[in-house]
C-alpha cells in the first residue's frame, strides 16, 4: 500500500492534481469503469441543489434504514472527520476500509490524475459496490452535470433548490445554474424538485429526456396539522407525520421532497408509514441550526451563501432571545460575503470575525472589509486571531441571556465543534 494512514493518503491527494476543482467526467469515469465495468448493483438516489442536500441525504438514509434496508450514503464536505463522508448502514466507514479503497483506486487509475474530491467519490462508490447494499444515496458536490458523482446513473434525481452560488463554475444566473443541476437527470427516470418554480432550464431538460418532473406544489405537497404535518401526492397521503428533528420550517420542504423521491421508486424500495415516522424522529445531523450550548445559547449553522443565510435569518426571527445576538463568523473567498451579511445584519448585534485554514479562506481583514461593504457599523465588528478567541469573546458578549450564532462555512462549524 502506498500509505499506512488515512491522513497520509489525504495529504498526498491534496497535491496530486494541478487544481483542487476540475469539473468533468472523462477522467473519473475511466477509472471507475476499470474498477467496476458493470452497472451499479442497487437503486441510487442522487441529490443536487444549492442548499439542503445534506439534509435530504440524511432524511432518505434515516427513512430507508427504518424500513429495514441496508443503505450507503455519501456527503461532502465533512465537519470533523473525513469518515463522515462515507456511511454504510448508518455507520461511518473506518480508516482501514477507506485506505483499502484508495489503494484500489490508485492501482486502477494508472497515469490518470484525480482531484481530492474525485478520489473520495470513487472510494465511496467502490465501498458501496462491495457492501451488499439495498440502496445508495449520493450528494452531488458541485453543480451536477460535470460533478464526479454523476458518473453513476440515478434511479431518481432530487434537486433541492437552485440559487446563486459557485457562479465562477456554474454560471451567473439561476437558469445557467439550473442547467448544471439538471445534468443529474437520466432518460425516463423521475426527477423531484423540492421547492416551487424550478428554472425553465430544469423543465426543458426533463422534457428532452422524457423524465417525469415532480415539482413541489404541483405533483406533491404538504401542510401543517394539529398532529404534526401531512404529505400528499395525488391520491397517496401520509398523515400524522411527526415534525422532523432538524430545526427550521424549510426542513419540511426537504422531508416532503424525499418522501416523493421514495414514492417514485416505491416499487423497488417500499416504505411503510411507521418507517417514515421513525426516520423523521430519529434523524440527527450536525450543524443545521443546531443548539449545542445554553446560557448563552450557542447555535451552529453551516449557512455559507445567500439562500442559506436567508433561511438562517428566518430561523433566528422565529426564536425569541431576551439578550443580544452575537456572530462567530468566517467564510471562504469564493462566497458572497456582503450578500450574506446584509441579510443577517439586522439581527446581529456584534460580529466576531475569525480566520480559517486553507488557501480559499478569507483573512480577517477581508472579512471585516466585507462586513463594512454590507453596511455593518465598524463598532459592531471585531477581528479575532482564532476561532477559539472569537468563540470566547462572543460568549462573553452574549451573556447568559443572549445567543451566539456560528456560521459562514462548514469549516467554521467544524472548527467550533472541535473546540466544544
UniProtKB/TrEMBL annotation:
Keywords: ATP-binding, Folate biosynthesis, Ligase, Magnesium, Metal-binding, Nucleotide-binding. Its EC number is 6.3.2.12, 6.3.2.17. Residues 287-410 form the Mur ligase C-terminal domain. It comes from the Bacteria. Monomer. PANTHER family: DIHYDROFOLATE SYNTHETASE-RELATED, FOLYLPOLYGLUTAMATE SYNTHASE-RELATED. This is Dihydrofolate synthase/folylpolyglutamate synthase. It comes from Candidatus Sedimenticola endophacoides. The lineage of its organism: Bacteria, Pseudomonadati, Pseudomonadota, Gammaproteobacteria, Chromatiales.
Amino acid at each position: 500500500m502506498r500509505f499506512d494512514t488515512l491522513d497520509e493518503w489525504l495529504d498526498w491527494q491534496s497535491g496530486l492534481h494541478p487544481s483542487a476543482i476540475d469539473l468533468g467526467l472523462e477522467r473519473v469515469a475511466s477509472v471507475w469503469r476499470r474498477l467496476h465495468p458493470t452497472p451499479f448493483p442497487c437503486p441510487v438516489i442522487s441529490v443536487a441543489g444549492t442548499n439542503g442536500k445534506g439534509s435530504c441525504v440524511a432524511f432518505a438514509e434515516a427513512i430507508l434504514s427504518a424500513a429495514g434496508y441496508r443503505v450507503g450514503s455519501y456527503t461532502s464536505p465533512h465537519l470533523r472527520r473525513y469518515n463522515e463522508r462515507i456511511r454504510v448502514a448508518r455507520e461511518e466507514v473506518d480508516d482501514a476500509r477507506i485506505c483499502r479503497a484508495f489503494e484500489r483506486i490508485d492501482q486502477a487509475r494508472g497515469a490518470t490524475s484525480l482531484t481530492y474530491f474525485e478520489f473520495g467519490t470513487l472510494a465511496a462508490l467502490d465501498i458501496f459496490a462491495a457492501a451488499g447494499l439495498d440502496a445508495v444515496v449520493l450528494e452531488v458536490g458541485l453543480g451536477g452535470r460535470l460533478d464526479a458523482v454523476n458518473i453513476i446513473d440515478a434511479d431518481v434525481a432530487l434537486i433541492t433548490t437552485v440559487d446563486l452560488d459557485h457562479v465562477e463554475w456554474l454560471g451567473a444566473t439561476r437558469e445557467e445554474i439550473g442547467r448544471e443541476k439538471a445534468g443529474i437527470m437520466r432518460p425516463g427516470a423521475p426527477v423531484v424538485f423540492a421547492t416551487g418554480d424550478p428554472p425553465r432550464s430544469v423543465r426543458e431538460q426533463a422534457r428532452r429526456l422524457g423524465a417525469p418532473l415532480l415539482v413541489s406544489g404541483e405533483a406533491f405537497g404538504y401542510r401543517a396539522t394539529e398532529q404534526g404535518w401531512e404529505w400528499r401526492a395525488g391520491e397517496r397521503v401520509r398523515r400524522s407525520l411527526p415534525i422532523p428533528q432538524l430545526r427550521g420550517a424549510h426542513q419540511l420542504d426537504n422531508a416532503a421532497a424525499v418522501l416523493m423521491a421514495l414514492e417514485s421508486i416505491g416499487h423497488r424500495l417500499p416504505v411503510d408509514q411507521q418507517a417514515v415516522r421513525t426516520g423523521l424522529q430519529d434523524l440527527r445531523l450536525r450543524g443545521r441550526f443546531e443548539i449545542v450550548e445554553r446560557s448563552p445559547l450557542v447555535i451552529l449553522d453551516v449557512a455559507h451563501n445567500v439562500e442559506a443565510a436567508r433561511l438562517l435569518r428566518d430561523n433566528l426571527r422565529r426564536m425569541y432571545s431576551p439578550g443580544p445576538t452575537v456572530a462567530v463568523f468566517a467564510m471562504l473567498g469564493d462566497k458572497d460575503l456582503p450578500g450574506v451579511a446584509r441579510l443577517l445584519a439586522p439581527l446581529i448585534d456584534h460580529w466576531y470575525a475569525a480566520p480559517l485554514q486553507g488557501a480559499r479562506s478569507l483573512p480577517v481583514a477581508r472579512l471585516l472589509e466585507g462586513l463594512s461593504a454590507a453596511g455593518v457599523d465598524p463598532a459592531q465588528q471585531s477581528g479575532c486571531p482564532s476561532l477559539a478567541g472569537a468563540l470566547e469573546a462572543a460568549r462573553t458578549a452574549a451573556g447568559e441571556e443572549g445567543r451566539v450564532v456560528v456560521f459562514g462555512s462548514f469549516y467554521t462549524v467544524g472548527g467550533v465543534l472541535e473546540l466544544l
